[in-house]
């Protein structure tokens, strides 16, 4: 890995390394092959350009972060609503165990003493995000700004903490905006999905103040909720454009943000 602008080959190598570490025949039968969050790779490679570690240690931290994200994604697919059949209960238990398996992988990736400081960032971030997920699940937020802040923490708090640890505040702020926009856009593409995703269930629970209703298999978002999410998406897109103007053009994450803006600017800004 060089400390210059990373080529596509560097990204592909990280993907292959992640898949080789995450691959487990039995776990794959439960959750399927774990998806790679390519946007995260762009972000993490960008961060690592400024870090004084050798190539091996950089890759260990990047892949460990992808493992954490994979574990979060796996746990997000756990059905929260009560299940009655033994088959569904077993599936839920196995999905939880699959996510736990990926937690163990991230820890083993950071076993070398040189990773001790960043390991603390990983551990505290995981605890913080899990706590915020629980607060969202229980619809504890009454203030809209507080609710949005919790969504942001769940979506990008982990990456923001990594960037902040390495002294890259602007990149951390850009990550917050980018990953919230990406999540909002992805969710609105499948807005009729049932049951609701954890993200949409949190929105529905906050909006209706009815946690139980948001977990039902036939739960749907109302027009007012959808309009609010669409407006929120457009606000994050505008903010993303501002970040793109502030990041250095040599930044790999800047290039990824610019590509994203180019794909969507005609859709949201009239």
Kindly report how far apart the N and C termini lie. Answer: 41 Å
State the helicity in percent bands: over 70%
Structural class designation: mainly alpha
The largest pleated sheet is described as: none
CATH class: Mainly Alpha
Rg measurement, Å: 19 Å
Would you tell me the overall average pLDDT?
Answer: 84
CATH topology descriptor: Farnesyl Diphosphate Synthase
Architecture (CATH level 2) name: Orthogonal Bundle
CATH superfamily: Farnesyl Diphosphate Synthase
Summarize this structure as a short list of keywords or feature phrases.
single chain, 270 residues, mainly alpha, Farnesyl Diphosphate Synthase, 0% strand, disordered N terminus, HEPPP_synth_su1
Entry summary:
This protein is mostly helical.
Q: Would you spell out the secondary-structure blueprint of this structure?
A:
Blueprint: H1 8-22, H2 25-31, H3 38-48, H4 55-76, H5 86-109, H6 116-137, H7 144-165, H8 169-189, H9 198-208, H10 211-214, H11 223-246, H12 252-268
Helix pairs in contact: 1-4, 3-4, 4-5, 6-7, 7-8, 8-11, 11-12
Organism: Sinobaca qinghaiensis
Protein name: Heptaprenyl diphosphate synthase subunit 1
Pfam family, one: HEPPP_synt_1
